[in-house]
Design brief:
With 383 residues, the chain is an alpha/beta fold. 30% of the residues lie in helices and 22% in strands. It folds into 2 domains: 2-185 and 332-382, Ribonuclease Z/Hydroxyacylglutathione hydrolase-like (Metallo-beta-lactamase, Chain A), CATH 3.60.15; 190-327, Rossmann fold. The radius of gyration is 20 Å and the shape is globular. Bound molecules: zinc ion. The site of zinc ion has 4 residues, from loops. Zinc ion (ZN) is lined by residues 60, 62, 137, 158.
């Protein structure tokens, strides 16, 4: 089986991996890279390879995994698009924010192209058997295990083994695992990080701004907010939909989140900031209501807490660099020890890491001896 690293290797963003043999070619995710310009915004897959694809599998609707889907269609992709119902539900919004508007307009997803699946299902494309499991990262998020009869590859996509709200299924054994190394060798547990955030929130009782992505993280944060909080009014329906998802949560967590959402205050653009934590989308200030909210909060001196990845050339990064925002990671990717556990569970196979710089991979390699720290976007390998 040939593995084509089209994006997200030695870098964070535009995550995309091709798998192929003489009979079948599939693509796993097609993300964009926030902060990159021109062709670098998209995966490095060539047009001829795009036209050859039988299918693309989308792990979840974050921009670094789905943002290039309309672009892929504009370059001639005509295969099947596998995603979960929840991912499909968030796809249009994400593409509206991160895709080229002319691609969205001129190359809509044809309903016949879409094949819905639920994490836990097994699918077949040509010679490939594709098993899936829950990622623990967002509602409807999935990892993939691909078997062509000669080799087995696990693509973790984004996974959150230590989520306080979502469930992640263990990944099966394989010959090669593509790990989510977003956090390199960061060993601080989710529990410790959540305590740091609770302390920060307690120290800012008269209001603060928390920019977040639309899915996943809002629920993680809602679970630890100590009291009254506000959300941008457009988030309520999306969060309610995520809470409805079957199987994503332990039952008690679902009830807690439902209660928390019922007490949340609706906030709208331009209104005075509330005297409680306010959640707005997105997490980088590069799209959605966060663009204006971060600008105003920053001008008014409202405390801002960033909890996710803050790429260069984004408003969130500028606020952080100018010390107008605090950053405390709320883990939605594996810590060092969690990645070691995933790799061990997969049978200690050869490993690649996506969503991480090469220096970050070298740090992690001390704990994951079979991690390839040299593979970068544009490389091709075989198992
Ligand atoms: Zn993600």
């Amino acid at each position: 089986m040939q593995i084509d690293l089209y994006g997200g290797f030695g870098e964070k963003g535009r995550t995309s991996v091709g798998l192929g043999d003489a009979h079948t070619r599939i693509l796993l995710d097609v993300g964009i890279k926030v902060g990159a310009m021109g062709r670098d915004y998209y995966p490095v897959i060539e047009d001829a390879a795009i036209k050859d694809l039988d299918a693309v599998f989308i792990s979840h609707a974050h921009e670094d995994h789905i943002g290039g889907l309309s672009w892929l269609l504009s370059r001639g992709f005509r295969g099947l698009i596998f995603m979960t119902r929840e991912t499909l539900g968030e796809a249009a919004e994400m593409l509206a924010q991160y895709a080229d508007p002319s691609h969205v307009r001129d190359f809509p997803i044809h309903p016949d192209q879409i094949k819905l699946f639920s994490p836990g299902e097994t699918m077949h494309v040509g010679q490939f058997k594709i098993m899936t499991g829950r990622s623990g990262h967002v509602v409807g998020g999935a990892w993939f295990h691909i078997d062509n009869g000669h080799g087995q590859v696990v693509y973790c996509a984004d996974v959150t083994p230590g989520s306080s709200v979502f469930v992640m299924d263990p990944v099966p054994r394989c010959d090669l695992v593509l790990l989510d190394t977003s956090y390199a060798d960061d060993a601080i547990s989710g529990l410790q990080r959540r305590m740091q955030i609770e302390n920060w929130l307690a120290a800012h009782p008269s209001g603060c701004l928390l920019p977040v992505p639309a899915s996943g993280k809002p629920l993680e944060i809602m679970a630890i907010l100590p009291g009254r909080f506000a959300i941008h009014q457009t988030m309520r329906e999306a969060i309610a939909t995520q809470i409805l998802a079957e199987d994503a949560f332990a039952p008690a967590t679902r009830d807690l989140l439902r209660q928390r959402l019922a007490t949340a205050v609706d906030w709208s653009d331009g209104s005075p900031f509330p005297d409680c934590p306010l959640l707005t989308v997105d997490g980088m200030g590069s799209a959605g209501p966060s663009v204006d909210a971060i600008r105003r909060a920053s001008a008014q001196g409202l405390p801002i807490l960033l909890t996710g990845h803050i790429p260069d050339h984004t408003p969130a990064r500028r606020c952080f660099d100018e010390e107008r925002a605090t950053w405390i990671r709320l883990p939605t990717h594996p810590t060092r020890d969690e990645n070691v556990a995933i790799w061990t569970g997969a049978g200690r196979p050869a490993a690649l890491g996506h969503s991480c710089s090469q220096s970050g991979l070298r740090d992690l390699q001390a704990f994951l001896p079979k991690l390839d720290v040299n593979a970068v976007t544009g490389d091709h390998l075989a198992i």
